[in-house]
Amino acid sequence: MPLIDHCPAEHQPQLRQRWEAWCGAVGADRVAEIEALLDAERAQVLARAFVGSDFFVQQCGRHSHWLAALLQSDDCGLAAPDLAEIESEEQLEKILRNLRNRVNCEVIWRDFAGQWDIPTACARLTQLAEVCIQAALDWHRLKMVERHGEPRSREGAVQPMIVLGMGKLGARELNLSSDIDLIFAYPEPGQSDGDKPLENQAWFQRLGQRLIKSLDTVTADGFVFRVDMRLRPYGDSGPLVSHYAALEDYYQTQGREWERYAMIKARPVAMSGGDGGVAAEAAEELMELLRPFTYRRYIDFSVIEALREMKTLIQRQVRARGMTDNIKLGRGGIREVEFIAQAFQLIRGGREPDLRVRNILKVLPLLEADGHLPAGSAEQLWDAYLLLRRVEHGLQAERDQQTQTLPAEMARREQLAFALGYASWPLLAEKLDAARAIIEHEFDEVIAPPEEPAELTANDQWQLLWAGCERNADRDSWLEKLHQAGFQPASQALDCIVALHSDRIVSALPASSRQRLDQTMPLLLASASEVGEPLLALERVMPLLRSILRRSAYLVLINENPPVLAQLLQLCAASPWIAEQLARHPILLDEMLDQRRLLAPSTAGDIADDLRQEMLRVEPDDLEGQMEALRLFKQSQSLRIAAQEVTGALPLMKVSDSLTWLAEAILQQSLALAWQQMTEKHGLPGGASADDMRFAIIAYGKLGGLELGHGSDLDIVFVHDAEPQQYTDGERSIDNLSFYTRLAQRLIHILQTRTLSGPLYEVDTRLRPSGNSGLLVTSLAAFEKYQRESAWTWEHQALVRTRPVAGSVRLGEAFEALRVTLLCELRDAPKLRGEVVEMRDKMRAHLDKSGSQQFDLKHGPGGIIDIEFIVQFTALAWAHKAPAIVRYTDNIRILQSLTEAGLLPETEAADLTGAYKAYRSEGHRLALQQLPAQVPADWFPAERENVEQVWKRLLG
C-alpha cells in the first residue's frame, strides 16, 4: 500500500486498519481512482487525515466520491441547498447533515494539508453555520406561513425573525465541533394573518423550536450543530424568543457584566421575513438597541472591578482544577487570550469604536496600535492563539467531539502531532508550552498584577461553580467537578444549577436575599455531594429552595445550621414525598432545628399532649387558626415520622403505629372543635353531657387495623346512642339526630377543607350501614340490627379491623363489646368460604395490576389482600370457639392469637407475618418515593408461594 511509505512506523498499524476499512466501504473502482490520483504530497496528506481523524475516514467511506473531490480541488465550495426541491422536514435534515459532514471533512483535509490556515478554516465553518441556519429558518418559515399566515405587528407590518449568533459564531471563529450559541428576536408583538392565527410570540416560538430541532437533533446522519440557547434573557427559564422592547427592558434593568462580555461578539447570522431590506433594517435596529448595553459612552472604569473579579475567578478555577492539559481552560489557554481582548473592549469600546470588532485576531493589532498592549505582544499572542486553535481542531477532528484536552496516552499525542505535520510530539509540545507561556504572561498583566490566590477550600470551589455556572466556556470544568463529586450524570446536575441561577425570581431578588442565596448554594452543593445520591438530593431540594427565596430568613437558618442542611438533603434524597411536603410548607423547616427531637419516636400520649399544647396557643374562637394549627401539626408530625422511617429510627410496625396515633389525636381534637361549635350554637343534646357526648368515631380499614401509611385516607363511621326524638337545650334547639348529623358534617368539614395548607385527611364514610344511601350517623341499636339482618359477608370481614378511636369512651366500649359479639357468632363455614373467595375474585379482576413484568403488592396473587382475607376468614370462622382471636384489630396480632389458640400452625402464621411485613415495608418505601405499590414480577417468590399455600389449604 503506497500510503504506508508516508507514515512513521508507529502509526502504520492504525493507518493500515483505517485504509482497509475505507477500501471495503467504497469498492475497488473507487480505490483505484484514488490511488491513481496520489502523488507523494497527496499521499502524505491522506496519511495524516486517516491517522488523525476517524471521523474523516467514516464519512469518506459513506460518501465515496468526497475523497476524490478533495484530491482534485483546492476548494469544493459551499452552496446553499435549493429549498424548492426540499419536500419534507426529514429531507431537509438529511441535506443539512450531509452538507455539514462534507464541509467538516474538507476543513480537516485542508488543515492537515496546510492548504488553509485557521482563520480560513474558521471562516468556512462559520459560513456553514450561517447557510444551515438560514436554510432551516427559511424552510420552516414557509411552512409556518402556509399554516398560520405571516406574523404582523399591530399596524400590519410583516415581522421578521432575527437570529443572533453569539460567541465563536458571532466572531466568525467556529471550530470543528463548536456549539452554536443563539438568541432569537423579532421587532414587535402582534398576530399572524392566516386562517389559524397565532400571537407573534407563539408563532416565533414554534419557528425557533423547529429551527433548533432541524439543527440539533441527532439522526442516522449525525447532527448539524448543537444549539445552546442559554445566553438569552433569563437563560433556560426565559422565553425562547423575545420582541425588541422586552430585550431592551431586560438588558437595561437586569443585564449583568458577563452578559455584556458575551454581547461583544453578538452578530445577526440569519434573518427571515418580509423582503430582504425589511429584515436587514430590523437586524440593524436590534444591534443599535443592544449597543448601549454592551458599550458605555465613556471609558468604563466601573467594569474594571467586575473584570478583575472575573479574572481572579479564572485564575482560581485553573488552580482548583489543575487542568494543565486543557488548551482552552488551563493556564495560557484560549480563554485567557479572549479575556485579554474582551476586557479592553468592554472598558474602552464606548469611546474607541474601532475596538468594536468581534474577531479576536482583528482586535489584537488594534490594541497594540492604541498602546493598550506592549509593542510586539499582539503578534506573539496572534501566533500563540493560532497554534492553540489548530491543535484544538486536531483534537476535535479525531472523533468529531467537542474537546480541548490533550490526550493522556503518548500514542494519541504522537498521532495528533503527525496529523498536524510535526515530526514528533515533543516538538509540538515545546511549541505549545512556549505559546502558553506568552499568553499566561500577558493575561497576568491585564488590569492589575495578580495576587497569588490562596489555596482553595472545597467551599471555594463550589462558590466558583455557582458564580460561573452559566459561562459556557467553563462548562467542561464544571462537569468534571460535579462528576468527581458524585453527581451523575453531571450534565443533568449542572443544568439544574444553571436553571436556578438564571431563574427570573433569582434575578429579581433584593441584594440581601441574593447574598444569602450565594452563601447557601456552595454549602448546599458541598453537602449534597456527601449524600448517597447527590443528583437526586439536588433536584428534589430545588423546589424548596425556590419556595423560600423570598423568605430568606430560611436561607439564614440553613446557612447557620449545617446539620439541618445535611439532614434536609438526606431526607430529600430518600423521599420525594418529604421533599414535596417541605417545598409546599417551608415552615416545616423549623421542625428540623432540633435534630434529637426530629428523630426521637413519640408515644401516643406524647403526640396527643403535643397537639393539646399547640391548640392552647390558638384563640378558642378562631376556627381558621385552629384548622391551620391542626394542619401544621399533622404536617410536622408526618415529617418527623417519615424522617424516622427513612433514617431507620423507626421500624415498619412502629411507623404505622405513629401515623395511626397521629390520626387518632387529630380526630379527637377535631371532634372537640366540632362539638364546641355545635353546642355553642344549639346546646347539649338531650341525655348528653360534657363528659359523655354519646357519639363515637369508629375506625375501619388501615386506621382500624393500626396500619396507616403516608397519605392514607381515613375510613370512619359515626355512631350515637342518644334518644333521637329528644332535643338540644340551647336557644336554637334541634332534635338529637339532626344535631349528631350536623356534628359529623362539621367534623368532616374540619378534616377535608382545603386551606392554604391543604386538607387534614381525606375521609371515606361509605362503610357505614347501607353505604352512601344510609344515614351519616347511625344509632348503636340500628348498627347492630343492620349487621345481624342486612350486612354482606364483606361487611363482616371489615368488622374484623374495626375499633372506636374518638368520642364517648362509654359508647366506644359498648361498640367494642357489640363487635366481639357479632364476630363470635357461629357461621356456616362452607358458605363463608365461598363468599370470601367470590369477593376476592371480584377484587382481583377489577384491581390487580400484576402482569408478566410486575407484581402488585396489594392485589396480586399471594399479596397483601390475600393475607388480609385469610385473617378475616379465620376470624369469622373460628371466633365462636376462640373469642380471643378478635380481641385485636391488626393482622399481625390476630395471626399471633390464632397460633396461641392452636387454630393456625406456628409455621404458617410466621410465613404470613413475614410476608405481610415484607410487602408493607416495600409498600411504605414506594409510597415515600411516590411510586405505585408494584415491584418486578420476580420479587418475593418465597413469600408469595407461602401465602398461596396457606390460601389453598384454608380457602381452596
TrEMBL record:
This protein's cofactor list reads:
Mg(2+)
| Positions of transmembrane segments | none
Q: Where is this region: Adenylyl removase?
A: 1-451
MF GO annotations: [glutamate-ammonia-ligase] adenylyltransferase activity; [glutamine synthetase]-adenylyl-L-tyrosine phosphorylase activity; ligase activity
UniProt keyword terms in alphabetical order:
ATP-binding, Ligase, Magnesium, Multifunctional enzyme, Nucleotide-binding, Nucleotidyltransferase, Transferase
Q: Which SUPFAM superfamilies match?
A: Nucleotidyltransferase (SSF81301), Nucleotidyltransferase substrate binding subunit/domain (SSF81593)
EC no. given is 2.7.7.89, 2.7.7.42
Q: Does the keyword Oxidoreductase apply?
A: no
Tell me which domain of life the UniProt entry assigns to the organism this sequence originates from: Bacteria
Annotated region described as Adenylyl transferase, given as residue ranges:
458-956
The residue ranges of the Glutamate-ammonia ligase adenylyltransferase repeated domain are 46-271, 566-817
| Chemical reaction(s) catalysed | [glutamine synthetase]-O(4)-(5'-adenylyl)-L-tyrosine + phosphate = [glutamine synthetase]-L-tyrosine + ADP; [glutamine synthetase]-L-tyrosine + ATP = [glutamine synthetase]-O(4)-(5'-adenylyl)-L-tyrosine + diphosphate
For the protein in the UniProt heading, the enzyme class is transferase
| Entries under InterPro entries matching the protein | GlnE (IPR023057), GlnE_rpt_dom (IPR005190), NT_sf (IPR043519), PII_UdlTrfase/GS_AdlTrfase (IPR013546)
Q: Where is the PII-uridylyltransferase/Glutamine-synthetase adenylyltransferase domain?
A: 308-446, 839-929
Q: Which family does it belong to?
A: Belongs to the GlnE family.
- Give a short account of what the protein does: Involved in the regulation of glutamine synthetase GlnA, a key enzyme in the process to assimilate ammonia. When cellular nitrogen levels are high, the C-terminal adenylyl transferase (AT) inactivates GlnA by covalent transfer of an adenylyl group from ATP to specific tyrosine residue of GlnA, thus reducing its activity. Conversely, when nitrogen levels are low, the N-terminal adenylyl removase (AR) activates GlnA by removing the adenylyl group by phosphorolysis, increasing its activity.
Q: What is the protein's name according to its record? A: Bifunctional glutamine synthetase adenylyltransferase/adenylyl-removing enzyme
Source taxonomy: Bacteria, Pseudomonadati, Pseudomonadota, Gammaproteobacteria, Cellvibrionales
The gene name on file is glnE
